[in-house]
Amino acid sequence: MALNIYGENLDSRLLIGSALYPSPEVMKQAILASGSQVVTLSLKRQNPAEQSGQQIWRYLQEIIKQTNGHLLPNTAGCKTAKEAVTLAKMSREIFQTNWLKLEVIGDDYNLQPDPIELLNATEQLISEGFKVLPYCTDDLVLCQRLYDLGCEVIMPWASPIGTGKGLMNPYNLETIRLRLPDATLILDAGIGKPSDACMAMEMGYDGVLLNSAVALADNPVLMAKAFSQALQAGEQGYVAGIMEQRQTAHPSTPTLDTPFWHQS
Amino acid sequence: MNIHINGKAYSLGNEPQISVSSALTLHFIEPQQSTFAVALNGDFVGKAEYDNTMVKNGDSLDILQPIQGG
User: What is the ipTM of this complex?
Assistant: First the structure.
């Protein structure tokens, strides 16, 4: 089934980052292997004479063309709503998209999003026509506020960026899913293993955004395939309907007319 | 006048102000062949405004380009 992001149907439910790969070529091969049609990227000060940014930009353009995909610029490094809004406008001019992964960081130690600045930035950006995909903590009320502001897609964290710790608080994530049944929920950040992504999909999440888990694997291309399959398994498990846990054992094999033993 | 471009100081003698377009030539070798966006003192400046927006003494210009991101 397709993932719908602001009216765009996508074949893959995996959104993938473009950072930290051993080389641009490995990045390209891994992204193609993942099947993802949404690739995140960013803006940074650079010396134009070095041309390194232009090389990455050419690679990303090739990938997007080949996958019929979408770029998802982020606002990494921003700490205030004002910074994020300025960076968003710069990204829109360069990348010609209203989509925005909105990041506003409130703490340098764990790169935790600042909920107040995030809400302020979201409000301003939506009023300027952006399609905001906010990266946020797994706080139900914050997610509700973002949804109420007009975010069709909300992206709570699994755990802090780059930690690979997986789903720190499954209860919070399940509650967000339960309370916001109509929101498109993408689990973003902290994913370490394919089983983490599978777990999110089994909860009914609509997709997963990750970067380090693939880029820092010994074999990023193979890991990208593993994540693709894990998402599919988790989604199919959710759709199929997972059995309820039971407190006591129940024999799987019918016991009626069991031959020979334990019979008087 | 003194300005900063991407954190680097530039001294431009007695010029009272220059346009963003002119300031870009200080930084770029070939601006027309690069992909970038500009902010002046933290506010976005669209490409259509480069000729009309003036950079004054003490101003900071940020020129950003695409980079990998997560």
Answer: 0.94
- The whole-model pTM stands at 0.93
Inter-chain touch A19–B28, beta carbons under 8 Å: no
Select from B9, B14, B43 the least CA-distant residue to B26. Answer: B9
Q: Reply yes or no on whether A82 is catalytic.
A: no
Q: A182-212 pLDDT, tens per residue?
A: 999 999 999 999 999 999 999 999 999 999 9
Interface test with chain B among A14, A80, A86, by most B beta carbons within 10 Å: A86
Please write the tens of the pLDDT for every residue from A158-183. Answer: 999 999 999 999 999 999 999 999 99
Count of helices and strands (H, E) across chain A: 9, 12
The verdict on residue B43 lying in a domain is yes
Task: Report d(CA A252, CA A246) in Å as an integer.
Answer: 13
| List of domains in chain A | 3-240 (3.20.20.70)
- Domain CATH for B21: 3.10.20.30
The catalytic residue among A28, A101, A165, A193 is A101
* Residues near A233 by beta carbon (within 8 Å), at least 6 away in sequence: A198, A201
